[in-house]
User: Fold this.
Amino acid sequence: MSELPVALLCTSNGVGLGHLTRQMAVARALKGRMRPVIFTLSGAVAVPVAEGFAVEHLPSAGHAGIPTTGWHDLLGDRLDHLIRTLRPAVVTFDGVHPYAGFVAALSSHRRSVVRVWQRRAMWRRGVGAEALATSDAFDLVIEPGEYAAPYDEGVTTTAGDQNRVMRVAPVVYAPERLDRDDACRELGLDPEAKNLLVQLGAGALNDVTTLTGAVVAALDAAATRDETTPTVVVGRSVLSSGPSGTAGSLPPVPGSDPRIPLDSIDPTGSLRVLEARRFPWTRSLAAFDAAILAAGYNSFHEALAAGLPSVFVPNLATRTDDQDARARFAQDQGLGWRWDGADPAALDAVLAEMLDPARRAAMVGALGALAPARGAVEIADHLVEALR
Amino acid sequence: MTSPTGSISARSRTGRLYWRVAESLPQNWRPAFAGFAARLRRARSRWRRGRRHLVRTGMRRLARAGTSTGPVASRWARLSAPVIGWGRRLLAVDLPGDGPVTLIDARGLAATEIVTRVDGRQDRFVVVTDDAHLLALREAGLVYEYVPAPATPLAPDPAAQDRLVEDRRPSWVWGYDITRHERLGDPDDAEPNEPAPTSRH
Assistant:
């Protein structure tokens, strides 16, 4: 066993991979300085395991009908067990609602560990005030950065714990970034062609299938109109079921997955549609000229940090995350486009802009002026500093 | 109020003064009161958490003692079975359905294989798995517990994984009110946990 101090990086379940991905980014930034162990409630355990991280997991309440009664004790007991066996110097929690069982167990170790709440901002207006009451159960609050922070109207902006909040740059998990040629080669795409990525989230709360079908159909219509032959890669979430492609061998979508309504697309049309399930997409974003993405924390910041012109489709069914504010910010600041996921005419309009090379070039310039997303390194620095 | 000559009477001036003082009090005190209310809320939240934690910690220790293996603990558990049963009813996760809960040790099997093997079972059970591809179990609606697989950082070898499992077993037993243990593929090996009087059914 290494002599490095242990950092126990905990995450809530979440509807996507945001919490888990941020903790993976922090874990990666901590390597060599602390020994990170990820404890997650997310079902995507295979993702950090495949990336070589030490991972512990407990299914969240609600899964398989598990009631919250008793589950909080189970969670508290597991955290207590992990703290007793791993003896971490620091425990961080990435989530917007620290669980009662978690907080209780953590409080019983307050003298031996530094307790950190890694609290993503950008909450919906008026939501989550009760969660902020748990802030005093932590020694430190770290807010992963938001490019769209000026549009943040959530309660965290006026919380009473401002004197303990440390704000860092946006957190993006990007172990390595391939250049365009290598990324295209890995995905089996032509680097000279126009390649588009469609990734609209895990679909836990909204109907991603219908949205994806609508976007692909609109892209097909635009390609036919413009007499171009772009390639569209439909990125499947690792949290979704269905057929999955492996690197370099993307199976064609039309007809292969009945859950995606691509009936409106002429199989002999100009659009080439592929699908892939992979993680992380940050590795391969250089292969794409533009993207249509969900406006969750990960997709949004990965695209902006990579300088990828994108249409953002906010998931309006999230409980806390104000995705619409992110999408509006991008639209207003010339850093992306927003589509509400409902109006077909509006979709055609934003896609027309996105497919215009001059508009994309201008946007790439604007995105290049953004501060680098090195929040994970800054968080790692804060955690190491907190132990001194 | 002005007099017929246009001047403000002394009585009226005094009245306005009183009104302004009365009006300024809540205005000036509002921030202070808000801060006090916030402190009160936090104190109440801390008190409730602490009270719940104390009660549950005590009950948890009781339940753990009652479900530990070994002759001494078992004898003690038999004597205090009613109390332990009551405690566990309060603490345990009440899984959907009826009947005793079985802990199925399915380590070493792929998640898809587990789903196939337990398909059709009507009893309540919790699967212990070390396959990280948990989505198959989730989509099948199975209740599971995950332990890191051997040759991963937290369980470098099978013995380390065994230690993890044995360390957590009491937590699972009281956490889900488990009364039976089974190794997947060996249904004949299923046997009641000792002691068994803590079942709710």
